[in-house]
Amino acid sequence: MAVRIPLIAAGLGFAISLPVPAFAASDDEELTLIRDQIRALEKRVIAIEQRRQTRNGIKKSGKILRQTGHGNTPDLATATSVGSPPSAGQPFSAPATGLASASHTGVPASSRSKGNFAHKGQHGGSDVQLADNRSASEAGQNRPSSIDLSSSSPLAITQTSVDRLPPIFSIGDISVRLSGFVDLSNVWRDSTVTSGPATAWNTFPYANSPNHGLSEERLSAQLTRLSTLLEANPTRDIRLQAYIESDFGGSAGTTNSVQVSGYTPRLRQGYFTFTKKDWGFHVLMGQAWSLATNYQKGMQPRNEQLPAVVDNNQIPGITYTRVPQIRIGKDWNQKYWLALSVEDPQATVAYSSDIASGGRLPALAGYEEGPRVFYSNPGGLLLNPNTQYSDNPVPDMVVKGAVDTSLGHYEVFGLGRWFRSVVQSPDSVGSHKETKFGGGVGAGVTAPFFTPDLQITGNIIAGQGIGRYGASQLPDATFNGRGALSPIPQIRGALGFIGHPDPSVLVYLYGGVEANTRRSYLAGDGRQYGYGVTDQNLSGCSVAFGTCTAQTRTLASMTAGGWWHFLDGSYGSLMGGVQYTYIRKFAFRGNDGKGNSVYPTSFGNTVYATFRYLPFQ
Fold first, then answer.
1. Do residues 513 and 317 make contact, with C-beta atoms less than 8 angstroms apart?
2. Is residue 207 a contact partner of residue 190, using CB atoms and an 8 Å limit?
3. pTM of the predicted protein model
4. Phi, psi of 203 (to 5 degrees)
5. Residue 104: how many CA atoms within 13 Å on its side-chain side?
6. HSE value, Cβ hemisphere, 13 Å, CA-based, for 100
């Protein structure tokens, strides 16, 4: 038995009756029946709208407006009151049934999928959308864009914005979202550094190199990116997610750009998360952005405050890396956050002379030979055999606390690292291990700057042995005279402004700096060794084809650019971006061989132009 409720759609000029079940065996069955009725009603409304548009000579297809979480347009699941007439040209909205909250009150995912409803929300949000892709396609329905440029770090630019998309399909109780983009980037640099669409900021050559002032131009599709997000909700308080993100930035030994540009896929991110909502408890395991990376809100993945830049190597001054990790976090009402992450990046080592692992350092005073040092090994099984891997005694530790207020997001963190070498002393036939501690403290902020259309973001970190966490890849450590690794002191910071002059336009301005200080010692031959030595003859750094062994002291940069989201529809979205970066490199002081000080410097200009097609958005 069913009760029929008449509904009058004044704007469409017809009356329909919606059967409401008087009794159902269970809530799930009743919800399924209601969903089927709404879907049938939607199809009828679309058909009537199309007939009206045809009669009026309008050639465009009807568009069903949906709630996206960032606009005010309703969908059939976000209902108006009974009898509320739609405005001219708008589809009819079904009456409120409590359906929008049903999927978040313990209704199983299998029951939701029967009605072709999809759970959609950013990081476990609470929007529910009608996701009958087949009927939408048949009706020519346009879907709203999932690109939101109002953020200080829009996911559609910095990552793939997969959270804002509805599921494509389901596997049992697991929903599957797909995202990504096809990217074509053109990069021009006024000095050749032989880099792809990611600039190696510390490699801009000095004037002695023939590459200094020899411009390079590269066209690349390597940044084309794909991602998948799988989600399950076993209970109303538990959420499981798995995220995989890949691009074509890998360069195996056989890749080249001579005959075909066959660059290889690589793992950018691959992790799973467990969330217990009522406890505010979060776990992440896998490869993700480091917890030391600045965040725009909270500390959950895919909320990182990454610069909205075109260059894939970000900008000098920010703190970031993507590494395997285990992270445990806790939030209090999504306002206060605390997390601990165990991460495993490699250490980078620099020395004033070429010392391979297993070589001897210069002897200290009173010794005929220096200590022998072992600090890295070439990659073995499932590692790159052409790369040296450091011998980390334990993973890095990152502890971070954050607070979200109406005035912005603020965070502080501490980083701990350990560096190990195996040393054979000059007076010993045996060897021993030397372990040194490094790390630092940092802070970050993301906040509106007087108006919601302009945001400010900044980060800073100071410590020793922290170079690996920066875009310029300044070294972590050098050697002391006894053969132990000695962490190099460093300070790094960046400040940026992100503006939104139009909903489809984003512009940005960033400044950044990374600076190392000296870590050297005096050997028995009377010369300095280590990093930041000041007794080298650097006169060749400014002479064509001269010899230059300068070591980087400071990198400073200024970056400006913007994005334009210029095409959007059911076919996806098109975006274009441009970026200009000026970088200045300063070396430690040397001499010209005549007792005069020499301060080598270099600079670089980089111009980027990028186009992206985002078919899922």
1. yes
2. no
3. 0.77
4. -105, 5
5. 14
6. 17
How many angstroms separate the CA atoms of 471 and 483, rounded? Answer: 28
Cα separation, 352 vs 479, whole angstroms: 10
Separation CA 427–CA 367 (nearest Å): 8
pLDDT band at 61 (very low <50, low <70, confident <90, very high): very low
Residue corresponding to tokens 């109303």: 236
CA gap 89, 507 in Å, rounded = 35
Q: Is the pLDDT of residue 88 over 50?
A: no
Location of structure tokens 């958005």: 617
Q: Which helix or strand (DSSP H or E) is residue 415 part of?
A: strand 408-424
Q: In which residue are the tokens 């970056």 written?
A: 559
Reference 455, options 571, 561, 330, 296; nearest CA is 296
Cα distance between residue 319 and residue 304, in whole Å: 11
Dump the DSSP string for 15-78.
Answer: EEEEEEES--SSHHHHHHHHHHHHHHHHHHHHHHHHHHHHHTT--SPP------SSS----TTS
Q: Which of 571, 457, 396, 448 is nearest to 150 (CA)?
A: 448
- The residue ranges of DSSP E strands in 42-160, in sequence order, are 117-120, 127-130
What the block records as the tokens of 176 is 């599957």
pLDDT of residue 261: 83
Count Cβ atoms within 10 A of the Cβ of residue 155 and give its class: 0-12 exposed, 13-18 middle, 19 or more buried.
Answer: buried
Quick check: helix, strand or coil at residue 103?
Answer: helix
Angle at 115 between CA 113 and CA 118, to 5 degrees: 50
Here the tokens at position 522 are 């005096």
* Residues 319-358 pLDDT 10s: 999 999 999 999 999 999 999 999 988 999 999 888 899 9
Length of the chain in terms of residues written: 617
Convert 278-325 into a string of H (helix), E (strand) and C (coil): CCCEEEEEEEEECCCCCECCCCCCCCECCCCCCCCCCCCCCECCEEEE
Cα separation, 309 vs 157, in Å, equals 8
Spell out the alpha helix ranges (H) of 485-597. none
- Per the rule left: phi > 0, alpha: psi between -120 and 50, beta: everything else, 31 is alpha
**Rounded distance between C-alpha atoms, residue 478 and residue 485, angstroms:** 6
Is residue 82 within a helix (H) or strand (E), and if so which, with residue range?
none
- How many Å apart are CA 414 and CA 397, to the nearest integer? 8
Instruction: Give the chain's end-to-end CA distance (angstroms, integer).
Output: 43
C-alpha closest to that of 409 among 153, 123, 120 = 153
Output Rg (C-alpha) for the chain, integer angstroms: 29
Residue 37's pLDDT is 82
Structure tokens at 492: 């790094």
Residues 305, 295 contacting (CB under 8 angstroms) = yes
The angle at the Cα of 376, spanning 370 to 379, to the nearest 5 degrees, equals 150
Query: For the chain, what percentages of helix, strand and coil (3-state, to nearest 5) are there?
Result: 10, 45, 45
104: phi then psi, degrees, rounded to nearest 5: -115, 20
pLDDT tens digit sequence for 168-186: 999 999 999 999 999 999 9
Which residues are CB-neighbours of 269 under 8 A, at least 6 positions away? 227, 243, 244, 245, 286, 287, 288, 289, 322
Please, which residues bridge with residue 487 across strands? 477
